[in-house]
């Protein structure tokens, strides 16, 4: 299995604190040693840092912890391989362009007997994971339903994607993070939680390493920041645990749609 | 205008030496201060490091110079903006997936009156540069001609792309680097050169900063490494200067096709 981390915020915010906790699960407090990746959106642009080695040993992960990149949407993943070998092409998050937006996706879980369902041609996987193939299939279904021009109502698109995710959940475990750079969606199969931090801000203490942050000193009163993770990253705050089949859509830190 | 750098090698090779020269042109010996990017292929996978700030000041560029990533294909670009504002989404290289491969592209030059020609729908630009739009148009034309399944003969695809590049050259300056992760193509409009290094290896001295390398100590006798750049990066070696309209296709450091 793997660990997911994502963020949606209404001001460019760095994710160094949460990422520092996540990285520990890549070889220190967790067994996820088969690569890691993190995508930062900055405006419509995005950049992804990846390594096919464990995050706790990665030079690139050290850069991310020491160089705070401010972003409104972040998607991150650390991997413990099940389907597909350990390689860069199998390392999440995966990105594809649709409607002039970069869509970024990461998956926690494992699927079975999926080859027959996931027939793709417009979007094809580069690696050989069930995860990337499922992502390609989702985008292909979206294009088949909505066409090559972005519809006025992206909410209809996300409702459709939630239905697809529900279909995929029948094939195994499918905890998913998906973003178009503006919206951030999560879909829960069995392990997904989130927290929305806003004023009054307090202190937070990581579970996986001995780090405490006082968000009151790092934020302004108008900041709204939602963090999503497979398991809570802090032990002195209340995380919302999602139920199987539940999903949430966030924009600028705020809940926009759910099902 | 901008500066291009690319590499094709028959063994995973780091590009630290050449990149160190290129980075100087991003604010020290050259005026290209509007961002930079570099894509490394490792197997079928790829990762791109980018910044919308000048390379000579970038933390991420410092990482690339201190952490040798070994790769068989590299595409890099430093930007002096003409079309499109300074932002991450306008920073080269650009990547799209086709036929289960990541295609990576960078452009030096400027085009005019291109909007009518570059009609796209399957691949859409995220930013607002002429460069990214031209890339989307090339891939769209390739799909229209060859379909959604990779043809057995990729050489026919590259010959077709060379024809498209020749059409684009009529709209202005179009020096291009393109790779599918296995092959590396360059197309020259007015500024492009390359060098193929193989045994017996010698010393090379950068033009832009006081660095000398002895490739004999860094390589094995079977290594073949081709480096492409807008302008020569070393002053004690003989670079091949391409003529307007000329193009070359390399694989594993060796010339495969030209026109």
Automatic annotation (TrEMBL), chains A, B:
It comes from the Bacteria. Residues 2-259 form the Glutamine amidotransferase type-2 domain. Gene3D superfamilies: Glutamine Phosphoribosylpyrophosphate, subunit 1, domain 1. Keywords: Glutamine amidotransferase. The keyword DNA repair does not apply. PROSITE patterns: GATASE_TYPE_2. The keyword rRNA-binding does not apply. CDD domains: YafJ (cd01908). PANTHER family: GLUTAMINE AMIDOTRANSFERASE, GLUTAMINE AMIDOTRANSFERASE YAFJ-RELATED. This is Class II glutamine amidotransferase. It comes from Shewanella gelidii.
């Amino acid at each position: 299995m793997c660990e997911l981390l994502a963020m949606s915020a209404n001001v460019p915010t760095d994710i160094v604190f949460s990422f520092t906790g996540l990285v520990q699960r890549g070889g220190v407090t967790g067994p996820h040693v088969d690569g890691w990746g993190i995508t930062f959106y900055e405006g419509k642009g995005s950049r992804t840092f990846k390594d096919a080695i464990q995050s706790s040993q990665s030079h690139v992960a050290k850069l991310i912890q020491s160089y705070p990149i401010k972003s409104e949407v972040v998607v991150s993943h650390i991997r413990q391989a099940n389907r597909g070998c350990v390689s860069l092409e199998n390392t999440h998050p995966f990105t594809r362009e649709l409607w002039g937006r970069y869509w970024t996706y990461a998956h926690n879980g494992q699927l079975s007997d999926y080859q027959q369902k996931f027939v793709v041609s417009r979007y094809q996987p580069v690696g050989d994971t069930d995860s990337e193939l499922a992502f390609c299939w989702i985008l292909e279904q979206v294009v088949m339903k909505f066409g090559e021009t972005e519809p006025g109502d992206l909410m209809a698109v996300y409702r459709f994607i939630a239905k697809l995710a529900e279909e995929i959940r029948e094939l195994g475990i499918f905890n998913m993070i998906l973003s178009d750079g503006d919206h951030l969606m999560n879909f829960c199969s069995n392990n997904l939680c989130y927290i929305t931090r806003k004023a009054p801000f307090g202190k937070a203490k990581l579970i996986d390493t001995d780090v405490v942050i006082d968000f009151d000193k790092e934020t302004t009163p108008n900041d709204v920041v939602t963090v999503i993770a497979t398991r809570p990253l802090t032990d002195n705050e209340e995380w919302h645990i999602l139920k199987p089949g539940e999903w949430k859509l966030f924009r600028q830190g705020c809940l926009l749609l759910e099902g």
